[in-house]
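#struct-queue
[09:14] JT: dropping the first one here, sequence first, then the structure tokens:
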Amino acid sequence: MLYHSTRGNSAPVASSFAIHKGMVPGGGLFVPESFPRLEPGVLPTAYPQIAERILSLYLTDYTDDELHDAVAQGYSANFDAASIAPITFYDDTTAYLELWHGPTAAFKDLALQLLPHLLRAAARKQGSDKEIVILVATSGDTGKAALEGFKDVPGTRIIVFYPKSGVSPIQEKQMVSTDGANTAVIGVQGNFDDCQNMVKEIFNDAAFTAELAAEGFAFSSANSINWGRLVPQIVYYYHAYLAMTANGSIGMGEPVCLAVPTGNFGNILAAYYAKLMGLPVSKLICASNANRVLTDFFETGIYDMNREFICTSSPSMDILISSNLERFLYSVSGGDAERVTNWQNGLAKEGCFSIGKDMRSAIRGIIAASSISEEDVAKEIRRVFTAREYLIDTHTAVASAALARYREESGDVTPAVIAATASPYKVCQAVYDALAHEGRADDEYMIMDVLRDITGVVIPQALRGLDNLQARHTRVIDVSGGREAIRSALRPGA
């Protein structure tokens, strides 16, 4: 299996090269040359075995032993659910896929507990003797998940940039309290898009890359622009489908809808790739919060980031530049790298691009998009808890409400899986407020305890005791300070 650039500016490469580099030098993302067919009925039911099978189809220059070891280390005692990603059924046709049982209580753990092992093997295969520097831009959850995955991993450093005022207090405390000799966490005076653009520019800065290479460092990424981060996400959609068949909600081969809270487009892209592989998916529900840039795009064919950036109660989705949309457009256009390049150039220069009627027609049958207001997010949290005493977070509520709206407007009652991407305790203030209980606690840590008392929902181990942890990372920079911050992180005391 070889990997091509979405912009046609790279020769085909092996998976270990794509994972080691993270993104295409000079711009563009690596995509597989094909999508192998894999019928869900031939798979085992255990999550690690599903992962090994799917990874083996794409990472063909890895040995079976390398993949087995990576999966065994990635999906071990660091998850608090035996099934890794359990499903909770709301009713016979609707299920929540709980992707938050890992060490940071968010869905990013499903990939980022695995990626460090894939990346170290990739470095060996590429004959690299340089220390790998993982650069991460995070809108909230990727940062902590990446820190936990790479913390104290030999031969790696990890530097996380996050929007100083754009994450929840719990998310920020998780990151800045991280220990580990190879970690750095840096706040940025800006939003997530500013962080993401800064990291992309650094990746594409040949002079800066050469400067650090001379000192023994090589950049890579833990964001979903890295294929090694994205491919493990395919696994849990197959896992969910098998759970639906085991429950009797569907028969093997019958279709499902997948509703996914969407910001950077990586999670829903993995669902789309599963569909291309043969998973019976009838519709993908692309659920956005009040930052409705994707909803507008799917409705009009025009991607326009020239708009107000809104800070919402679902901060991991507060994004105006959805990086993985580039991979989706490459696929739907039939691998037309020239068109993709033109669209991305338009986005970089003018903040917008238009895909045309042919692409709109091709996309219409695949994705239904919806934007959910802050008021409706709160209503959905309250509705689900009142009906089933099941507590969901704000990001999951966006997808849950979008599915309900899609069903009402389309009349489509196909059984559906909702990606539950974070523990409700990650955004406990908003969840607490949504339940409309009187009185207020003094801080988010007290709110966690109150929320536990009124709902009976256990606080994940990953989020207990955060109030007792000290902030170890306190640096804050403006958007022009990324390179100097990296130099300081890699040269402590210099």
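[09:21] JT: and here's the second one, same format:
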Amino acid sequence: MTAHASSRFTRFAWAVLGYNILVILWGAFVRATGSGAGCGSHWPLCNGEVLPRAPEIGTIIEFTHRLTSGLALVAVLVMMVWAFRIYPKRHRVRRAAFWSLIIILIEALLGAGIVLLEYVEANQSWGRAAYLCAHLTNTLLLVSALALTAWFSQSAQNLRFWPLPRRFFAAFCVLLLACTTGAIAALGDTVFPAESLAQGIRAEFSSDSPALLRLRLLHPVVAIGAAIYLFSIGYLFRTAVAGRWVLALTVIQTIAGVVNVVLLAPVWMQLFHLFLAVLLWLALLRLSLQSSR
């Protein structure tokens, strides 16, 4: 394998990661705008058709997500085939690319399940909340595998992901918990939009409110605890660039969370909040790689 081939693969791997992050954000836009039923309960067809005719805006949003998701799957497949062509057997780039494909296939099945189980629009079931948590967990695993593919292909250093030191394992756990409770809170914001901050807080503490709405209170408590722990990790490794990124993103994400609550979770802020969460996850992943050598 030539250095030029490796460099081209690395650029492609980073492009695939960036594209998948955009697809993830568009998926969140589908949920936040209540467009998940835009293609009805049909999958992979849209309202029983390959190409929807005279589509409404919700159908366009959902159908666009399906198309971009399909292209993401193709891109990951190309990346894996490319990795198997230019890297030797048992190479870590091969393994990371292989797991990227497996995880994105699971991602596609989870996306199909949301439609087929009708976990869309105003559905406020516990099943939908649990499903969203599983979907987000798989999403974070996907960006991890994609990022590892890119990092392993460009680094001559002996970066090692496993076994994780206990402090990093705990950091990933608390960040994942903050993200999943955030997904539940975002679902509550979508299904039960508040007219004012005071009205939203009263509804959360009311015993007559739906369980999903009262469960929204979990996120700020978990997020504060996660922020404290992640800040301590970033401060402990502040001499590393990735450590400083963890520090900065933890602070920015905490501020963004407060702004999101005050502004009553507008769609653009929900997307920005999710984007910061993905960046923070990747920064923590990079720091764990550098600190596990």
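[09:30] RK: nice, looked through the second one.
[09:31] RK: DSSP finds ten helices and no strands in the chain.
[09:31] JT: good to know. The chain has two domains: 1-148, 157-293.
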